[in-house]
Amino acid sequence: MAKQPRILAGQTAAITGGARGIGRVTAQAFLRQGMKVAIGDVDLQAAQQTAGEIGDPTHHSAIGLPLDVTERASFAEFLDTAEEQLGPVDILINNAGIMPIGPFVDEDDATARRILDINVLGVINGMKAALPRMTTRGRGHIVNIASQAGKYGFPGGATYCASKAAVINLSRAVRKELRGSGVEISLISPVAVNTELGLGLAEPRQRQFRKIEPLQVAEAIVQTLRVPKFDVHVPKALSISERASALMPIGVQDSLSRLSHADDVLSQVDTGARADYELRAARSEPGLPPAPEQAQIPKRTAG
After folding, report:
1. How far is CA 82 from the centre of its chain?
2. I want to staple 204 with a disulfide (CB 3.0 to 4.6 A). Which of 48, 136, 200, 209 is the partner?
3. How far, in whole angstroms, is CA 302 from its chain's centroid?
4. Which burial class, exposed, middle or buried, applies to 73 when counting CB atoms under 10 A from its CB (0-12, 13-18, 19+)?
């Protein structure tokens, strides 16, 4: 018997990295469902602007709040303020993440730490801040945004791939610990998405690995909240590819990745197209001055 879809209207969601990209589009999708949304972002001005642009000010349906996901205290304050203004947080979307890319041996230590701090520690902090509230109430849903990069290691983004693999197994382990608590954990693993983070990436030959729109991810999140499921691929066809790949020897997997140009996605990139994003990601820490506008990165193809 099919599960009865859950009603989302009236629920409160908190979204990290919600000022742009997937976070912003997901917030819009939630508002269309009649939900209330707290948009957390390290860029407070952008978070407040997004809330003002997509929310209904007469109903106080969206608020923009400061959030540094790498700091446990900042996350707790974010959720406290969201609950004071919108009511108990029913849903947390751990979406904040960065993807600086380039050859592994050329990656500086500060970049590696920043990727892991935001992409992994940020999710850990979010779950640790939200779960006690949810388990006490006996209900709640945490959605962690991973990536197909965490399931398939792509050259050119080794540390990013590692961070998303960590999110996948973190989610699996915590889900088991929460059995019987009434709290759900879901994992969303999209391919490259047409946002700032996906600028300049190469397109593989396999259609299911080609770049998608953030609305597709947002719709998958909404569907997962309505009918809970743990492991969600976007697009759905990737679940078949993952199962088939798991049956193949690693050498065969590697050959298929090369032949389909999947290995090119993060290694053969237009760095000029990514220049502004890479500079912003490098300055993604509260208190740091913005990247200088005059800074330029020459356009080239990595290889």
Report:
1. 20
2. 209
3. 25
4. exposed
